[in-house]
Amino acid sequence: MVTPVAGESIIRVEGVWKRYGLPLMPIVREGWHRLRGAFGFPGEAPPILPWALREVSFEVRAGETLGLIGRNGAGKSTLLKILAGVSPPSAGQVWIDGTLFPMIELNAGIHMELTGRENVYLLGAVMGLSREEVTQRMGDIEGFCELGEWFDRPVRMYSSGMQVRLGFGVGLFVNADVLLMDEVMGVGDVNFYNKCLMHLEDVRSRGRCILFVSHNLFRVRRLCDRVVVLDRGEVKYVGRTEEGIQVYEEILRAAVGGGRGAGRFYDLVGATLVSASLRDMQGGVIETVVQGEPVDLDFTFRLAEKIEILSVHVMVESVEGVLVIWDLVDLERLLAGDNHFLLRWSEIRLKPGVYAVSFDISTGPFRKKGFHHHGVLSMRVAGPKADGGVYQPHSDFRLLEHRPLVVDPAAGGPPPAVSADRPDGGETGTASCAVGGGACAAS
Q1: Same domain for 230 and 305?
Q2: Contact 25/47 with Cβ under 8 angstroms?
Q3: What count of other Cβ atoms lies within 10 Å of the Cβ of residue 347?
Q4: Is residue 292 helix, strand or coil?
């Protein structure tokens, strides 16, 4: 197999459109309307079916990892299926210069009645490898999967994590020029995830390219050289990862109404959310919160009748859907009419990004849910760039002691620790650092 030259285009997508549905139905429908028009009968215009993809174009170079990010229904999985040859485009062209291994579904290409070992031979044959070539790599694949005795048992007995291990093992060791990955790294433990990252770096260094779909922006930042941002089937951005994530966050923010969205809603207790806003300490309405600063959440519920026991839940979620704040207040004898609340967060230590604010009202001693309003507000947190996590506490980091690397062989052990009480009167070196944007200093 010829190793792709880094920098050369290995995937080209030009003007791809995709529309789902039976192709016969639009033809019959259009013919019917034309026939009615030919005989002078008024007719309705044929309905326009929605496009899953619209004029999608981009390139992927050898040795590059390209992330595909977007909301649910943006067209990411549809695009991967077109690249994998599972589904043809309605219009446009796709060129792939080399072999491709799709990991777009948990058990794609895996026969459930065969053992793990037999599936490796099967998938290797599909990729064009001889039985001898697969046998040569079998030890590496078996070691990577870490399935033990399960490697020789039917896959139908595997858990979802075990199936992912098997699929990853084949995908990484068959030396395909292109790997398609659709959220498959969301299954498995931390050790396996770190092992995958290490092997993916090796795949990239050998000039292979990876298309990676995920809602986990931390993984996108860590893995991807560039990203394509999709929304409603259209390309909104192609370029550097960090700028692309910012575009994606703006799309999410607009999805909840630019800060005052409707979101998902239901009401079982006759409650209405009259108003909701984020405010600074002067009472001004804001949409961006500075990390470390306080913020007020001002909201008003209108109740149709008196409620004896009421619980108000305020939830904040990250763009990945991770619940990062959940405040609960229990109230008694809330009267009918408008009830105005103020919730103050004295210090927001969330990492920079966009978050969705939602409300729940529960009633009764068992907190039976009666009102839910999801994505009422979007809250942008501004602050120093963070590579991971969701919470950034103000930290004081310092060096307490130092041990030199010189060891006296005659003493048979390391020298004593150097501390502030040195008997020789020497000065002790210290260092301190304010984590989360502060500068480090040493003396």
Answers
A1: no
A2: no
A3: 11
A4: coil
